[in-house]
Design a protein that fits this description.
heterodimer; A: Aldehyde Oxidoreductase, domain 4; 4 domains; 5-stranded mixed β-sheet; 19 helices; 28 strands; 30% helix; B: DNA polymerase, domain 1; 2 domains; 5 helices; metal ion binding (chain B); Isoquinoline 1-oxidoreductase alpha subunit (chain B); 2 iron, 2 sulfur cluster binding (chain B); 2Fe-2S_ferredoxin-type (chain B); metal-binding (chain B)
Chain lengths: 742, 157
């Protein structure tokens, strides 16, 4: 059996259920063949998404489960066509493999607003999809997973089903057309049932039948809320995250890397750590140290005890100086002007204001962690991650071995939000495993290490000019300055700088469906080396706040109702977005008189293919302001699992509200001032609003759901604060400006 | 010097130093990884376990100070039968990433033990120390109410 076979077997073993004698189905293709990475030792894989063994059917989800429910929906795509019994299907994460490239990542690549994309432009992105395949990007991000899997994974299920039927037809001596399938069985006209398990090995050797996909009217699983495949494991403590792997002889480690970002380490004294009980070794990581101990707590105590001589950060000494540096980008030529309509320079501004958004941490519930073992030259890693092939490459590099000698298990992610695209934890774990061969290492970061070594959502500044006339906006002129996430994060991933106009930098501002005659959005890239990365909704997370706060200012300047003002500008430009505004209006009862002591705000952002509108109600309560109610309406087009869409909308909303209300990372001498939840908190159950969600399905194209709830939550909150207090806050977080219940 | 604990009804011995927080004895010593590390400063509730039925933050309780029997998420269900709270969690499909959910459930278990039919305000007060970055709070609240009804029905029955 090949190395790949062994790799796959180990992967499946980690799924908590051993695959003993399975089958992975044939070579599956749409246009070009992709190599099926699945080679079970004694079974059949019918394609990269289906393994059938003696225990039943396993479906391979090529994307990471970080809470967004994607394992459930992706598996349902296959199960729907395969006629597998949902309750008995196992869902496993696939190994790093080119077969699992994410083509839908390219849908956002064209420099045109998603809402206005023409059919021919969509087909161009299909070609770009092939390019991401060449790059082999197996990335969970950009709210793309379901869109990417929608056709491919149904086809995988359908072709596996037909291959199984073909084998059954031969055995029974009947026409294939006379057979039907149900609950993992082929059923003959005379009632004879053959279990898929008895057909899989033969079916796996067949050429792949090309099959028409079922009509959605005939769907049994898709379109309804399914029990999530990961739920039972997650309520019993059995779900395995990066540091939940138990191995014989395991050692426990933590790291302490220079917190003065960009700085290093001039030297260290390990003696105080080595004197502590349980501490075994202090290892030099170059820019910091790792402590290896008999348990994680001893390692963490040891890491604190090591005397380290840090070298300073090259970053500006204060956050204010950093923002000054970002503001200097306004003096440079814009990197992009992706919206440029009318003659903005010829109009006098009635409102001219500046907005600011702070650095933010991802603050996933699970701090960064990984488990690693280098044994006989082969590295095995367990790490929840959003880019398995990148992580495997980095691990190989850190351990000084070939990538073929790396087995990477993508376990559950204790929150991702973009943080686990980054490979820093994997690099450290692999380096430690290489320093201590034959010894399993469980590496756990402290919360402080996690918060102080994030790849932050960048701070951003917007300078806005606007004017209204006869109740309508006539000028919307935005200049946005921020460091480029695209350049930083993609650069880290592909090893070269991205050139050209940076769409991600201005997304959420240039691509909104408003009809305004003089409408310009220019992006200025700031030169500031704070580590930054993808943070839920990326550029939309600050641009949504800028755009929709300023639209609110224009509405009030025009003396208009802010929701109707939006509808007037949006409906003709995009009926789909207009429909979402109407849905949130109806859901929230917008227009009815607002009681004394209540402030109500609205915002709408089109991001990741899904227009999403939010209404927030604030109430005064005992001298504090409570976020009392939230209403959210979205239109992601065809919905495959309503409960998961609803959960993601609530999740994105709460993530956005948390940031807008209290999220801020500040720096002193290049070191983040916030290290743990008491300094960087989020909404909790008592200050989370009551939430209602409306899902519209008029969008002709499928959009994402993991991120679109986040951007409009922030301006809706700020706009509600304006409605309540008359105070227009143009700087987040709001807690610095108003007395919220926290 | 070995310390003996009763965890999920089983007597266990550990050589961990007595000042080691219970969290790490459970996770690293006993392999009970359902209890999670989130912050180390009692600010998130991910490590919530029970000692003699009382919900505590395992990151703050030294091994040497453990005063009674310990129950973790692994000990909440009986064989394949989920505890009523876990069943409610499944009915309401509460978990997203799932990392905080062991702690949420253990905290909710104490709430229902003390307050069999909690109001929303009582739920908010009892669960305020348990952070969830995925924002599953609405589902948590609904599941607690549901479990309370189920338990009440069981008592009545």
């Amino acid at each position: 059996m090949s190395r790949l076979g062994k790799i796959t077997r180990r992967t499946l073993l980690v799924g908590a259920v051993a695959v003993a004698g399975g089958a992975a189905f044939g070579i599956y293709q749409i246009r070009k063949p992709v190599t099926n990475p699945l080679r079970p030792e004694q079974g059949a894989s019918l394609n990269p998404y289906v393994i059938i063994d003696q225990h039943g059917i396993s479906i391979i989800a090529p994307r990471a489960e970080m809470g967004q429910g994607v394992h459930t929906t992706l598996a349902a795509l296959v199960a729907e066509e395969l006629d597998a019994d949902w309750e008995s299907v196992r869902v496993l994460h696939g190994p790093p493999a080119a077969a699992y490239f994410n083509a839908a990542l390219a849908h956002g690549a064209l420099p045109v607003p998603g809402y206005a994309m023409q059919d021919w432009q969509r087909s161009v992105t299909e070609g770009l999809g092939a390019a991401t395949k060449l790059l082999g990007l197996q990335v969970t991000g950009g709210s793309t997973s379901t869109i990417d899997g929608f056709t491919r994974m149904r086809m995988a299920g359908a072709s596996a089903r037909e291959a199984l039927k073909a084998v059954a037809a031969e055995r029974l001596g009947v026409e294939i057309g006379a057979l039907r399938t149900e609950s993992g069985q082929v059923i003959a006209p005379d009632g004879t049932e053959i279990d898929y398990r008895d057909l899989a090995e033969a079916a796996a050797t067949r050429p792949v039948p090309q099959v028409a996909l079922r009509n959605p009217d005939d769907w049994k699983l898709l379109g309804r809320s399914l029990p999530r495949s990961d739920m039972r494991a997650k309520v019993t403590g059995q779900a395995q995250f990066s540091t939940d792997i138990n191995l014989d002889g395991m050692k426990f480690a933590t790291v302490r890397v220079c917190p003065y970002l960009g700085g290093g380490m001039a030297g260290f004294d390990p003696a105080p750590a080595l004197a502590l009980p349980g501490v075994e070794q202090v290892l030099d990581l170059g820019d910091g140290i790792a402590v290896v101990a008999s348990n994680t707590w001893a390692a963490m105590q040891g890491a604190e005890a090591v005397q380290i001589d840090w070298t300073p950060s090259p970053l500006p000494a204060t956050t204010d100086e950093m923002l000054d540096q970002i503001a200097r980008a306004f003096d440079t030529r814009p990197n992009s002007t992706m919206r440029d309509q009318g003659s903005p320079d010829d109009l006098a501004a009635q409102i001219e204001v500046e907005y600011r958004a702070p650095f933010l941490a991802h603050s996933t519930m699970e701090p960064m962690g990984a488990t690693a073992l280098l044994q006989d030259g082969h590295l095995t890693l367990w790490v929840g991650n959003q880019a398995p092939r990148e992580h495997a490459k980095v691990a190989a590099d850190a351990a000084g071995i070939a990538v073929e000698d790396v087995t990477l298990h993508t376990v559950f992610l204790g929150g991702g939000f973009g943080r686990r695209v980054e490979t820093d934890i994997t690099r450290q774990a692999a380096a430690l495993a290489a320093m201590l061969p034959q010894t399993p290492i469980r590496l756990t970061w402290s919360r402080e290490e996690d918060m102080r070594h994030d790849f932050y959502r960048p701070a951003a500044i917007a300078r806005m000019r606007g004017a209204v006339s006869d109740g309508r906006a006539v000028l919307f002129d935005a200049k946005i300055a921020a460091p480029s996430v695209t350049r930083a994060a993609i650069g880290r991933m592909i090893g070269r700088e991205m050139g050209g106009p940076d769409k991600g930098h201005v997304e959420g501002a240039f691509d909104q469906p408003y009809a305004i005659p003089n409408y310009r959005v220019a992006g200025h890239l700031a030169d500031l080396d704070v580590p930054i990365g993808f943070w839920r909704a990326v550029g939309n997370s600050f641009n949504g706040f800028f755009h929709e706060s300023f639209i609110d200012e224009l509405a009030h300047a025009a003396g208009r109702d802010p929701l109707q003002f939006r509808l007037d500008h949006v409906s003709a430009e995009s009926p789909v977005a207009g429909g979402v505004l109407e849905a949130v209006r109806d859901l929230s009862g917008w227009g009815a008189p607002v009681p004394e002591g209540v402030g109500r705000g609205v915002a709408m952002t089109w991001s990741f293919g899904t227009p999403t509108a939010v209404v927030i109600d604030l109430e005064r309560e005992g001298g504090k302001i409570r976020i009392a109610r939230a209403f959210i309406a979205c239109d992601p087009g065809l919905v495959l699992d309503p409960a998961i869409v609803r959960a993601q909308m609530e999740s994105g909303l709460i993530y956005g509200l948390s940031a807008a209300l209290m999220g801020e990372i500040t720096f002193t001498d290049g070191r983040a001032d916030q290290g743990n939840f008491p300094e960087y908190d989020a909404l909790r159950i008592f200050n989370t609003p009551r939430i209602e969600v409306a899902i519209v399905q008029d969008n002709p194209h499928m959009g994402g759901v993991g991120e679109p709830g986040t951007p409009p939550a922030m301006p809706a909150l700020a706009n509600a604060l304006f409605a309540l207090t008359g105070q227009r806050v143009r700087e987040l977080p709001l807690i610095k400006h108003a007395d919220f219940l926290v | 010097m070995a310390v003996t604990l009763v965890v999920n009804g089983t007597r266990r011995e550990t050589e961990f130093a007595p000042e080691t927080p219970l969290l790490w004895v459970l996770r690293d010593g006993f392999g009970l990884t359902g209890t999670k590390f989130g912050c180390g400063v009692a600010a998130c509730g991910a490590c919530t376990v029970h000692i003699n039925g009382e919900a505590v933050r395992a990151c703050q309780i030294a091994l040497g100070d453990v005063w009674g029997d310990v129950t973790t998420i692994e000990g909440l269900s009986t064989g394949d039968t989920l505890a009523p709270l876990q069943q409610a969690w499944v009915r309401h499909q509460v978990a997203q990433c799932g990392y905080c959910q062991s702690g949420q459930i253990m905290q909710a278990a104490q709430l229902l033990a003390q307050t069999p039919a909690p109001t929303d305000d009582e739920i908010d007060a009892a669960m305020a120390g348990n952070l969830c970055r995925c924002g599953t709070y609405s589902a948590i609240r609904a599941a607690i109410h549901d479990a309370a009804r189920a338990l009440d029905g069981r008592r009545a029955g």
